[in-house]
Amino acid sequence: AARGAAMYAGLQELGVANGEDLKETLTNCTEPLKAIEQFQTENGVLLPSLQSALPFLDLHGTPRLEFHQSVFDELREKLLERVSAIALEGKVEERYKKLEDLLEKSFSLVKMPSIQPVVMCVMKHLPKVPEKKLKLVMADKDLYKACAVEVKRQIWQDNQALFGDEVSPLLKQYILEKENILFSNDISVLHNFFTPSPKTRRQGEVVQKLTQMIGKNVKLYDMVLQFLRTLFLRTRNVHYCTLRAELLMSLHDLDISEICTVDPCHKFTWCLDACIREKFVDNKRARELQGFLDGVKKGQEQVLGDLSMILCDPFAINTLALSTIRHLQDLVGQDTLPRESPDLLLLLRMLSLGQGAWDMIDSQVFKEPKMEAELITKFLPMLMSFVVDDHMFTVDQKLPSEEKGPIPYPSAIPEAFTKFLQENRIACEIGLYYFLHITKLRNKNAFLRLLPALVETFSDLAFSDIFLHLLTGNLTLLGDEFALEEFCTSLFDGFFLTVCSRKENVHRHVLRLLLHLHHKVAPTKLESLQKALEPTKQSGEAVKELYNQLTEKLELRKPSPAEVTETPSMELPLPTVPTPASR
């Protein structure tokens, strides 16, 4: 009955007879057949030529319902086409006046499933649906669900809480997707978190959905940015900064000038986006970026909060840090000090702004963080001296050895280096990227020399997911070293295991690494690692799952009891063939 009522919802208001009227007529009449005929005549398609044609359909056994349904469907299609055409023709005021009149006439039928698409189509083409109608749509769950995104935008822009409910699951999904990539079981130096280009990332489901929800609506765009700022402040999760930049660039791709021209970060983000694509800040773009930073006028300092969030995006930090390491190597070759390189100083300025994003947005004090002179005069020259140590060691190895024997690789690290990594955020970030750089070069000596400095770093950055994701990828290049006790002790006992019990994410990354490289690790070491990494009651599901996977792989590697039994002394022992290492 309820479904029947919905089918005819609103017809009575328009003076059109419905099923209820027919029921009433039949209940109160003496001749039902005559009453039905009269009802059909009054409410059928009023075309004189049709009256004589209908009996033909009866002869072919076509029910009247089927005929009326097909006429109805045809008319509805024509009406939908006409509505879309009206929305594009004539003067703006006139066309919208026509649509408003049509909406006024048809809105009472909005709950009637067969007519609903027409009403929704009319609303979709109206840039401003009357407030009263929007409220009725919003109050009815089914109507709200059925209406086009163009209508929903009009509802959302005055209902931040409702819009928040729509956006929130998307933001959760986005963060989850990022974390899944960082903890992925595929460990590779060639394909990591930073491999996809900005353009590819913007094609992701969440960015595309948000872009569509916003359309050209500046108010909704501002709301999303406000959500992202709030969540970034609440969680310190830097992936919200990535989404901030991706969303702006997604609107840029679609040429939505209504939004891009009012976002003061647009040109800066566009230029930085090109650098991220190349994974390097070249001199021309560096000057352009500097121009934007220097161009922040008095009274407009608030834009620094937005710029800092754009620069706090891990993809931006990654690009700036990689460029910094490249500059430092170039400076070694040019015999130039860091303080004499304007390009390097600009990279540090942007790193500093990005790393200070949370503090700036939290304190609402919009000024660039002050750069510590010692970072430039002491820390960076120290990193350059490490590069020089490597060059000297390499050259020394090639020289004919004299009586005194080869010079050993320097093993000590300056105390100041460790102190910088603990106390200065920018120094720590650059130091960690230098460490990734030497790992990628398979420079085992430098790796073992600097590793102890990573146990205590600023805000535990060396145990952050992004760094560990990159480190585990680069460590695959040093795979053969895992057979050596000294190397494993330094890496596992000296670094990873120092925090495994209190940092679940580190526990996960170590297990990921071992799942990938277990066949390279010396058996005795592997056994002790298996014991040390056993999950506790407090461990999360992810750790338990990884540990079980590792255990299974190690079980497969063990020789079966049949292979181990002693061979009779008369026969020659067959050499046991090790099973191929299962990755």
TrEMBL record:
Residues 557-583 are annotated as: Disordered. It comes from the Eukaryota. Transmembrane segments: none annotated. One of its GO terms (biological process) is negative regulation of transcription elongation by RNA polymerase II. Pfam families: COBRA1. GO terms for cellular component: NELF complex. PANTHER family: NEGATIVE ELONGATION FACTOR B, NEGATIVE ELONGATION FACTOR COMPLEX MEMBER B. This is NELFB factor. It comes from Nothocercus nigrocapillus. The gene is Nelfb.
